[in-house]
Amino acid sequence: MKQRKGIIIWYVLGDLLASAITWYGVFLFRKCFIQGEPFSLSIPFHDNNFFKGIIAVPFLWFLFHYVTGTYTDLYKKSRLQELGKTLIVTFVGGIIIFFILLLDDQVRRYTDYYITFLVLLVSQFLFTTLFRQLLLFRVRKNVASGKVGFATLMIGSSQRANELYEELKKGEKAFGFHFTGYLELNGREKNTLTSELKELGHLDSLETVLQQHMDIEEVIIAIETSEHHMLNDIIIRLADKNVTIRIIPDMYDILSRTVRLNHAIGEAFIEIPNQLLTEWQKITKRWFDIIASVFAIIITLPVTIYVAIRVKLTDGGPVFYLQERLGHYGAPFYIYKFRSMYSNAEDNGPQLTTENDARITPIGKNIRKYRIDELPQFINVIKGDMSIVGPRAERRFFADQIIKTAPHYRQVFKVQPGITSLGMVKYGYASTVEEMVKRLKYDIIYIENMSVMMDFKIMIYTVLTVVYGRGK
Predict the structure, then answer these.
(1) Domain spanning 150-272, CATH class
(2) Where do the domains of the chain lie?
(3) What is d(CA 181, CA 201) in angstroms, rounded to the nearest whole number?
């Protein structure tokens, strides 16, 4: 994994070098062919604007590529898709740089602007693509040779699993799957797959195997048509795990267009990625969370100070309430809230809040009604434990109870928990496990339709809830 992350540095350096070369060439072109100065390779070095640009322009291109999610795992990139993405980012970024740095040029004809922009666009695309494709060629060579790969678990040991393994282990079609072993489904006697891979147990051992082999990042489900009734259970078991799921399709899956073919050769899979948002959406969401949280903390500071004093004066107990919750992929973290209950509220164990709960303090009723008790969670957002919008983070005690009733609750661990959510907006607080299960429907709807625009809509509804005091 370190080797895979380290090569991204070379990818960044290649982009910086490409943009620096392009800026040098465009600057020389403008001076000699647009402004009519005698041709000389040293012309740019006599102009202060050249040195300003040679620093600013590579930084701007780096920013464009970072925001659009370019600098991710190179070993999982498609060279053709990367070519198309480079073209789009180059075109948009070229327009921005042209209007910021080149539009005020002294030109003889208006068409010189178009020529300058075309030179900038073509040069940037060609140099960027050249360095990237050379690096991606090396990456693909490392994968094909087996030097670098992805720890993979096979689920299934039937004829389809055997045929798939034989197909994938061929050198030219390996695509980086390094098999850790396989899980048996039907408990039959040893099969031919056992002679090639290590049997790690039965399906019931799935969670234990993933805990013991934490480097596993790909899970291939290769089961017979007669075993498809087990598919939903397998996917649910993997819902809260940071793995990419690949399923061998039936003809029905192929005809219904759910199959994703990543390469011109090799097996086709139904792919369930471990990330629900595209890379640019994930980056945008994260930076919005940070900026909005800092802004919210600043503008609510007077309210924070007032509530802190009132909470302290209630019974002399602590102002803040820290409680362990489950976050992304079920990882535990401590959530921050203003204390709205008496200090001994849970001496008898975990309890859900009920209507007219005697454990809630007088100030607690008001701050819960307007969701003010959740203001300290903006600290969790800045730390990266939470997002502003996401499913409600629950305690393990209640999460385990929900999973017994609704196993698909594991789906909520695919994303970071949030201060607000579609479930909180549409349903509100839950006072029983049954109500939690009912609210879960809205969290699943959010996860399946997750987007930046969806987040904005939920935040608007949340503001209305706070303004009108619809919380409880």
Answers:
(1) alpha beta
(2) 2-145, 150-272, 279-467
(3) 9
